[in-house]
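Subject: Interface between my chains keeps coming out wrong

I've been trying for a while to get a sensible model of this assembly. When I model each chain on its own everything looks fine, but I need the whole thing in one frame so I can look at the contacts. Pasting all components below, labels as-is. Any help appreciated, I'm running out of ideas.
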Amino acid sequence: MSEKDISFRDRPINMDEKGARKWVYAKKPKGKWYTRRTIFSWFVLLFFIGAPFIKINGNPFILLDIAHRKFIIFGAIFWAQDTFILAMLMLSFVIFIVLFTVTFGRIWCGWACPQTIFLEMVFRKIEYLIEGDYKKRYKLDSGPWTTEKGIKKITKHTIFIVISIVMTNTFLLWFMGPEGLFELVKDPISEHFSGFIIMIAISSFFYWVYSFFREQICTMVCPYGRMQGVLLDSKSIVVSYDYKRGEPRGTKQTGDCIDCRQCVSVCPTGIDIRNGIQLECINCTACIDQCNTVMKSVKKPAGLIRFDSEYGIQNGNKSIWSTRNRAYSVVLVIIFSFFVYTLFSRPAIETTILRTPGLLYQQNDDNTISNVYNIKIVNKTHDEMKLDIKLISHDGIISMAGNSMTVKDQNMFESTFLLFIAEENIKSDKTKIEFGIYSNNELIETFKTTFVGP
Ligand code: SF4
Ligand code: SF4
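Reply #2:
Try treating it as a single job with all components included. I did that and got this:
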């Protein structure tokens, strides 16, 4: 098969006949959609960088503290015990993304995905600034090494490396919080050598992705892009070419498309939107702007490429509602309502009391038997709590290590205690017992466990 006969469906657009990478030299986009996208990206970047610094009542707005199994999302704290609630939140998010994709296609990719935001709005803009637009870049890359080329490449890659390191540290802020990260940075590298290596590895990965791998993340790696095929339907609003208006294409033809290929030259994934909806289209709108400029210059109405659905192009009606997105909306409302209900009805504290592993019981001289327990209490409120523990199922004495059971707001109390029960009250080798946790003499939680005896 000759190169001419090869269709866009036969191999990825950025691959040549030998399977080698064909670099995409995308033209710098310009137009109203690009301006909107740029402004929106500032908010996304601001959120990405600023969110870990925001505090609500002294607590972080966002913190994904995997090490301590503590997640704070929009100020609400989730502990390991709240996995179910967190799962409800994640499920709501996934259904929201599915609903959004069914209705508006891959709009997330072009507008809000960190990969696109950083590539198109940070790295690519720096590249345009240093190396110029697509033609100059192509000339620079294919030309011989000169002093000018060397300076441009060194400057660009040095800036890319610095941004990658800053990105990694910003990313770490989401997991460690500003205090945790500054603490780490203050200490000598030798004290956190493995952490330092991880930071370098992540920075190197970011540098490699944004400098070399680029759009292949969206076209070959990202599973979300692949899901499009099953999620989109004829009513999904996506960046579409109006083939009814545009065809037959060409300057001497009757369709509005003059076949200038400007929409292709501006596409960051290198595709031709006139071939229809494609997996590689990230809905970035660059081709809409470019084609609108062309339409203006040939005095034809804008919108040959626009946000529309297959149904809209066929019938001139942009109805976005289908049975599928109605069904997804209902499921989303149910699951999200359940999440809100479980979030607000969860207990103020969460107690876990377990016998210390490896220890059995002890027979004491005063005719009592004692067991050792580990206790963990998570305070989910925004107030410090002074708590008390009592055995409510039997008569017994609790001897806690340390004096007070005071748990700071959104914090965890951990300790060990001994429970003494008179021998005559122990009827089996495994007695079921129940503890009560009190705050201001009010019983706020109970916990059942066992007491072992002879
Ligand atoms: S930019 Fe518009 S006119 Fe030019 S090829 Fe693309 S669709 Fe046709
Ligand atoms: S086809 Fe258009 S919207 Fe899709 S990725 Fe290319 S330029 Fe962006």
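Reply #3:
Confirming on my end. Residues 239, 266-269, 271, 273, 281-287 surround iron/sulfur cluster (ligand 2) (CB under 6 Å).
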